[in-house]
Amino acid sequence: MEALSPEFYKSRIVSLDTELEVGETFWIRGIPFYALLLREPHKGEAVTVVDVKGREFRVRLLEITSEGAKAFVFEEQPPTEPPFELWLLQALPDKERMEFIIQKATELGVHVIIPFKSSRSISLEEREAKQPKAHRWPSIILKAAKQCRRAFLPILVPYCSFEEAIKMVGETFCKIMLYEKAKTRLREAIANYQKPSKVAVMVGPEGGWSEEEVNKAMLRGFNPCSLGGRILRTETASLVACALVLFYWNGLG
């Protein structure tokens, strides 16, 4: 999996080929309807849709059939999506930290979340043997996306290895690897980039990266960066890094 194609991106947004205006009633059919179904909609629910001009609207679902949904436009809202594609590559943490990361990353505006096994992280099998929770991840994304009124429904990539995760990130990405021993601070690194169209942030486990992993990531174009002298928990580091990237490149605030 590389950067999202325009067609796949559209399949995660209820994107219409017509203009909308507050107060009108219309039908959602075709590809936009399939995108709506990913949100498990119900009659009376409010959802976010995007019209042909890229404007976002809140609409109320009046009727849902097997072929489409009838909706009423009641509000135009500010854009909810960052001006660039943001991926989070997250080494699987223990306990309920992954659920927290998934929820907050969705709220912040992350588009793709990739959970992976690093040399010093717990495996999904070990984690699930203690308390099965991975089956809830898609539901957490859906609920968080609805709560913050996002137009885009984030993608959760199946759990994979460290090597598989870094290979998914294409050459056109701005690639950031959080590494506590890095000499470059994150704010210094992003200041040297031109405004990107795609950004990948990779975060390791609380046990840290192995030297081999750092070298492999660097060979794939990742830039090791630190968040300063304080060693943050992995869930804190993930959200701080995503928030800083979004803020710097006008995707937040």
CATH architectural arrangement of the largest domain: 3-Layer(aba) Sandwich
Question: What percent of residues are in strands?
Answer: 15-25%
Q: Strand pairing plus helix content: what structural class?
A: alpha/beta
- How many β-strand runs? 11
Which blocks of ≥5 consecutive residues have pLDDT under 50?
none
Q: CATH topology of the largest domain, which one?
A: Alpha/beta knot
Rounded to the nearest angstrom, the distance between the terminal CA atoms is 30 Å
What share of the residues lie within helices? 25-40%
Main sheet? 7 strands, parallel
- Give the CATH superfamily of the largest domain: SPOUT methyltransferase, trefoil knot domain
* Count of alpha/pi helices: 9
Average pLDDT taken over every residue: 93
Radius of gyration: 19 Å
Write down the secondary-structure element order. Answer: HEHEEEEHEHHEEHEHEHEH
The first-level CATH class of the largest domain is given as Alpha Beta
